Every structure is written in structure tokens, then in C-alpha cells.
Amino acid sequence: MAVLNDAATYFAALREALLDAQEIVYIVGWDIHSETNLVGASGRAEDGLPDQLGPFLRALVQRRSGLRINILVWDFVSFYASEREWNSAAKFTADTEGRVQFVLDSTLPFGSAQHQKIVCIDGSLAFVGGLDLTIRRWDTSDHCAALASRCDPQGKPYPPFHDVQCLVDGDAAASVFELAEARWRAAGQQTHDRRALKRLRWPSNVPVDAEQIPVGIARTEVVSPAGSTTREVERSLIAAIRSATRFIYIENQFTSATRIAEVLAEQMQRVPSLRVLVVAPKLHSSWLESQAMQNGRGAFIDCFSEAGVADRIRFVYPVSREGETEAAVMVHSKLMIVDDQTLRIGSANLNNRSMGADSECDLIFEAASDEHRQFIASVRRRLIAHFCGLDARSVTQNDDHLFALLDEVSKADGAKTLRAVEAAVPTGTLASMVQPVADPERPLHLERAASRMWSTKTIIGIAAIAVALLGLALAWSYTSLSGFADTGRIATLLSAYSQSGWGPPLAIAAFVVGGLVVFPVLVLIAATAAALGPWLGFVTATSGVLLSAFILFVIGRALGRERLQQLLGRRAARIQDRVVGKGVLAVVMIRMIPIAPFSVVNVVAGASTLPLRDFLVGTALGMTPGILTMAVLGAQIADVARNASWSSMLLLVLAFLGWLGICAGAQFVATWLAGRR
């Protein structure tokens, strides 16, 4: 086996191993990006194939006719849409004749994620750890504060990034391969019989760190919200902590599992000689993570103060400095070393969801000889040294007073150091609401949660919201406000700007504002078409509808699924699950046969489990027939609003019947396509 410190080392080793692949490669991950530069420390490849992952894999299967590559990544929720690559599947599979397959794993229960980070090659080599093959991961172990080659595909630089992966062969690789195959089958995909292959060559650019070292595979596997869960990650973590007597070294992105903190604090109370060093990020990388995990990290750290052992545990983050530029290193690794006896590298964070909600895979190496113990100790010393700008020998010489050495390095104010993490806890209501959803101990069981939270207070809350929204909708039709909801008046207002170029932007703004105050969307569509003409009116109205729908969807999403379930109760949760499961088709049907005001539908959809992509596509398909009909007949509709007559009324009836015909045809097509899918 070998420990691969940071992405430049891992990517170089993986690239060389893939070049030797003969028959089958499994890539299992949380995220993947076709524009990831799969290169080593030099920042470029020298084997004649493309640097970027997607083109590289396509070139690989074209070069080796018998090779197949299966990619399985999490079918992410819409919270992560802005961070993910659009249309990844096509970018990996184009021109590969089906020998590169790309599958989004949507089989896990709601609230769970496919979080394993595995690459298996021919059942002979396996890479396991915390690194996904995606952008904003690549860095060298120097972690320079500023590095020109450390930027994303848009050329935007990102901070230093640290992670750890390991490489194994032999029986360990074969077992990890079986695990990857099982995940592939669980996602509904077929596996193929493999020929007996010769052992793959160990990558020449990777020194072997240890041989014949016992290794175990620890998993978290979730079957269903109510079904059994494999919790080997949690059990093995607790067992390792309870065996510790001298020193535990931890690197982890998230520390929020208070159950693990309590076990560790109890062990420190029992064993006065036990010390712990935890290397974590200074801050978390996104707003959602900071709201969810910062709160949990504060509670995690507090466990040691409450147990009276805070003086024997350090929470630190690494910093790199170059001239006047200083940057905190993003720690993404999931590693633990106990007494230089066990080494753990994998995908599991020390948070609640890694213990029981997500799929995880860790490898645990256990020393069976003095040579193995020396190897594990060397990994610990090497990692600490590279954060502090020291060599491993300096750490070895100061093993017995390591904390004092870290204090000296911090005071020296050198190019690299480890600083104390501030255990600031966001105590706001938003953080307390986000954390249980973002970091659950088990998959989110919406029906059970809704049943538990159903109360008189929530009934009154939903009644008040419903009455307010419906009251506003009725006000535009049956009160003095109805004078403003007049198609002719709005069309006349927009017509004044139709020749200046301000007409379309003002119309789109009217859709956004109208959506916020539950203004009748059909009035806006008709007025826009009448004022701007058929084609410009159609484009403007469509843009306005989609932008308004998007903004209200985001507002609903900010309110959150959890709050929606509080308001709706058990029965509505079951109905919602059935409707949302139909995705695009459900939205198309609701748009064509509006069962509630446009704005209300948008907010409720945002607060549901419906993906943003399905919502926008369904809205476009469902609203387009009506918008098109009104755009073509916009002038006639406005004329009816201004000067009602039998002929204009007849024309309006014919337009309505035409709209129904288009809706019925589009609904038939959508249903047929959904059935085929």
C-alpha cells in the first residue's frame, strides 16, 4: 500500500494506473467533473493524452478496445446545482460507443448521499480516500499561498487544498472492487463477467510504503429510512478510540458527531496520558456547510471542556504564507492514526451523516510488526511536518512534547504554521434549523418527521399563510385592486416603452414583482403580448415567467422542506412524495391545469423535494402552450379587455379552445415521454 498526500500525487498515480487498465474501471464518487486536470505536480501530462479527465477517459477507451469505464456519482440535490457541472454524462460518454457509462446514483433515501471516493482498476488496484475527481481539489503538498496553476476551469484561483488518498493492491483491491460492483448493481446497473487478469503493474511513480499489512474495510451503508443500516464506520471509530493510550492524530473536514466526541473525552478521562491533535479547516467552504457544521463543531469542541480534558487536545488549522499573501489551507481529508498502531484513510467525516446517513468507505490498516508501526508513525510525522514547514526528523525528535513544538512554530510566524481553531458557534435560528437537515444521524424520514411535528401551532400557521396568499389572489379580482389587474391598462403602460428598448426589461420586472404579490400571471402574459407583439411578447413573457418562478422557488427552498413538512403533516407528506417523484411530468400537469395561484405553486414547489431542474423544465413545458397562444392572439385579447363585443368574445373563446388543444397535445407528449423513461 501507499499513502498519497494531496491531489497532485494522487492524480499522477491514478493517471499512470489508468494507462495500464485492461478491462474494467469503476469510478465511484460524490462529485466528478470532466474538466478536472488529471495531472501531477508539474501541472501537465506528458503521455500524449489530454490533461482533462473527460477527454482523457474517452481517449483511453479509444486506445484500448476492450476497456470499459463505469462512473457512478451521487444524484445531488439542487442545493449543489451551482457547484456541479452541467450535462456531465455527455461530456464523459460522447464517442465512446457505450464503453464509458455515466450513472447518477439516486437510490439512496432522501437526505442521504453517495459519499464514497473510490477508483478500482481491473480488480487489481484500488484507490480509496477523501478525494473526488472534481475541480478545486488539485494542489501540491507545498500548499503555496499563491499558485498560478491552482485555478478552476474559469481561471478563478482557489485556496490551498489538502486531502489524502491511499493505493492498495492484492486482496484489499479485490475486496474494494467487489464493493464498487455492489454499489453499481444497487444503482440498477448490470455487471459483466471478468476474465482472470494478470496482476497490474504498481505505478512506477508511487513508492511502496508498506507490504503485507492487515487492512479492514469499514462502511456506512443505508438501505432505507426504516431499514437496516451498516454502521461499521461508527463502530470501528469507537473501538479505535477506546483502545488509545498515547496519541491520536486526526485530520477531518467536519467534526460535528458529538457521540464520537463524548467517547473520545471519556477515554481521555480514563487515560491521563492520552493526547489528541485534530487538524481541521479554519472555515467551511460554503454557506450551507458553515450553517450546518460550524454549529456542530462548536458542540464537538465543548465536549472536551465539559469533561475537563481540553488541555490535552488541540484543534488547529494550517496556514501558508508567501510574502504579504496568507491563506488558510482547506483541510478535506478524513484520516486518523491511533498510537501509531492503526491508520485510517477514507471518505467518512466525523459528522453525524457519515455515521448513519451517507454511504461511506474507509480503509483501516493495523500494524502487525515493528516495521508496520514505524511506517504508520512516519505517515503521522510527515503530515504534521508538511503543515509546519518542518522535516519529519524534527517532529520525531519532539514526539514527547509535540504541543510545545507546535507552539514554537506558531510563535515563529514562518511560512507555514498550525493555528488554533476558534470554536465560534452560530447561535441563530437559521443555524439550528439547517443543522438537523444538513447533518442528520439517519436518512430524513419525512412522514415520520411530519407526524412528530404536527401540532395546533403548525395548523394555525399554515392556515394563516394559506388565507393570506389566497386572500391576496382574490383581492386582484374582486376588490378595488381589480382595476389595476386590467389587461388593457397594463398593455397601454408597456406600449409606451415598446419602441425604446425598455419594454422587455420592464415587462420582465413586472413578472417578478407580480409574482411576489400574487398578481394574476395570465393578465401579465396577455398584456405583454399585446404591447410588444407576438414574437417579442412571447420571448419576454416566457423569460418573465421563468425568472419569477425561479425567484419564488428559491424563496420556498430557503423556507425549507423541514418547515414545509411541519406545516403539511403526515398525509400531505405522502401525497407530496408521490407527486414530486414524477418530476417534470407533475409540474407540466400543474402548469397546464392551474390548481392554485402561480406564485403559491412556485413557493410550495421550492419548499418540496422537487429538483430545481425538473421544476424549471416542467414550468417551461407547461406554460409555453398558453404563452404561445396568448402571444399570437395578444392584440385580440387586449381588445376584448378594452371593448367587449360578441365578435371579440367569440374570438376569445376560440383562443381558449385552441389553448386547451395545445395543452392536451403537450400533456400527451409529456406523458408518453415519461412512460418511455
Labels describing this entry:
single chain, 677 residues, alpha+beta, Endonuclease, Chain A, 3 domains, ten-stranded mixed sheet, 24 helices, 15% strand, globular
What does this structure look like?
With 677 residues, the protein is α+β, with helices and mostly antiparallel strands. The protein folds into three domains: 2-186, Endonuclease, Chain A (2-Layer Sandwich), CATH 3.30.870.10; 215-433, Endonuclease Chain A (Endonuclease, Chain A, 2-Layer Sandwich); 449-676, no CATH class. The protein contains 24 helices and 19 strands. The strands form three sheets. Strands 9, 10, 11, 12, 13, 14, 16, 17, 18 and 19 form a ten-stranded mixed sheet that branches. It has a seven-stranded mixed sheet with strand order 1-8-6-5-2-3-4, sandwiched between helices. A two-stranded parallel sheet has the order 7-15. Strand 13 (313-322) and strand 14 form a beta hairpin. Residues 447-455 and 567-581 have low confidence and may be disordered.
> Could you tell me the mean pLDDT?
81
Number of domains in the coordinates? 3
Give me the oligomer status: single chain
What overall geometry do the principal axes of the alpha carbons give? globular
Give the helix/strand class.
alpha+beta
Q: What is the CA-CA span between the terminal residues?
A: 43 Å
Unreliable residue stretches: 447-455, 567-581
What is the count of DSSP helices, taking H or I runs of 4+ residues? 24
Relative helix content: 40-55%
> Per DSSP, what share of the residues sits in E-state strands of 2 or more residues?
5-15%
Radius of gyration: 29 Å
> What can be said about the biggest beta sheet?
10 strands, mixed
Number of strands: 19
